[in-house]
Amino acid sequence: MNKTIISSFFLPLFFLFIIFPVVALWINLDWAGIQATFNDWYFWDAVKNTIIASGLAGLLSLVVSIGFGFFYLFHRDSVIYRIANLFNDLPIALPHTVAGLALLLAFGRKNFGFLGQTGVAFTFFSLVLAMFFVSYSLAARTLVSGVDQMEKEVIDVARTLGDNSAQAYFRVVLPMMGEALVSGFVLSFSRSVSEFAAVIMFGGNLPGKTQVLASYVFTQVEVGELKMAVTAACFCVLLSLLILSLLGFRRPKYAKG
Amino acid sequence: MLKAENITKTYNGRKVLNEVSLEIRSEIKALIGVNGSGKSTFLKIVAGIVVPDKGRVLFSDGDVTEKPPEQRNFGYVPQHPALFQHLTVEDNIRYGLRNGRGSEESFRKAVELLDLKEELKKKPRELSGGYQSRTSLARALVSQPRVILLDEPLSGMDVALKDKILPEFRIALKAADVPVLFVTHDAGEAEIVADSFAVIKDGVVRELDNSEEAFKFMSTSN
After folding, report:
1. Which residue ranges form the domains of chain B, and what is each CATH number?
2. Which of A115, A121, A247, B166 is deepest in the core (most CB within 10 A)?
3. Which residues pair with B201 in a beta bridge?
4. What residues make up the domain containing A52?
């Protein structure tokens, strides 16, 4: 199969189903919609909620991934690792409405009601938890893939120089995995920015409180404000492109063939 | 004295080491074997990185078989320099000092012996292959280990460079005055560095008088 044949099916399908829908958003963008959206404080609240909650979810994902990476590297036979590994990819396969419902039952009124009438549900913190739940596995997998690529002998050397496994992990492994850590955070952050179902189930869609960009777009479509929805959607596209460009420039480039 | 007794290790049903015993006094002992002969596995068992199926590792008559690498204080110089890329050459060499291993004096001595003074502020990736290997050895020496284990530390280096570095390695290793196990597939390399010789083949170790005998043994029995 040569380059022409590959291009003949790749280009039309890619442009029609990936590029064109994004272009369609920009075609429908107009000045009135931009003005109305940018003058809407709920939009800026949604932007703020999205960025802060996604950032916190990304950081939380990174912290938990670092723990998972340790067990992956040094205790792969342990029960803790086996259970963690089993549950790691669950959020990817699980419908995110189910994830939202699970979080609602776990941290809602029934179990955490002492924190308020609804427990943790429908608070800003619930956004972070919902985003973390669906994005953590991306950070964990990225970190583990970084661990797989590293030269294991550096760990052996560190240990012969007196480090125990935890010291070797924090002093040698993690500092040498800067790229995997950044990628893990960015992937988790970007997945969190795009999350809708789990967020709306667990955090609700309260304008100015728990509304995020994804739910803001949904709301504007629901109430018939399509121009504002388009503006917010284009803003999301720009935000996503910005995040992904952070990842893109770190990827290795291969020779042309 | 370092003593390995009846070390046995099996990987995927293949007995890589079969009741291997070896003694090393304060000397440089070369363990020569072809690729896949189990010499690196043996060295890693002595270092505590790999756990043997059977057998014991003794140091000064104390059994260290169950001890993890960090409790043995055996220096390890792997096949690839395995330098900590995020640290400078100096911080690499000083690494053991963070854990109370070695001293300023041992640092100064290792830097001098291996001619690393001009390289200390560099990052490992800025070093040539030869200096990376020197740094790797210096890092092990500074921690004043009770035993030094070298796993083909100059593999992949060209012959001319090896011929220059090997005598320097020997001087540095002799100065440490501890048992040294130098694993290699190259009998010529062993000749330059080692005081005594052993060959590993088919999971069994045989001690020989000189590297020539070792070379003959390896070639005739293959």
Report:
1. 2-216 (3.40.50.300)
2. A121
3. B204
4. 31-152+178-248
| Three-class secondary structure of residue B170 per DSSP | helix
Give the nearest partner residue to A153 out of B70, B75, B80, using CB atoms: B80
- The alpha-carbon gap from B76 to the nearest alpha carbon of chain A, in Å, equals 6
Domain of A73, CATH number, reads: 1.10.3720.10
Confidence band of A96 (pLDDT split at 50, 70, 90): very high
Q: What is the pLDDT of residues B152-210, one digit of tens each?
A: 988 877 888 888 889 999 999 999 999 999 999 888 888 899 999 999 988 888 888 77
- Cβ within 8 Å of residue A13, ≥6 positions away: none
Backbone angles phi, psi at B147, to 5 degrees: -145, 145
Does residue A254 lie within any of the structural domains?
Answer: no
Q: How many domains does chain A have?
A: 1
pLDDT tens track for B43-101: 999 999 999 999 999 998 799 999 999 999 999 999 999 999 999 999 999 999 999 99
Rounded to a whole number, what is the distance in Å from the CA of B145 to chain A's nearest CA?
Answer: 9
Query: Does residue A19 sit within a domain?
Result: no
The three-state secondary structure class of A124 is helix
Q: How far, in Å, CA of B179 to CA of B57, rounded? A: 13
pLDDT at B222 over 50: no
All residues of chain A having their beta carbon less than 8 Å from the beta carbon of residue B143 are 161-162
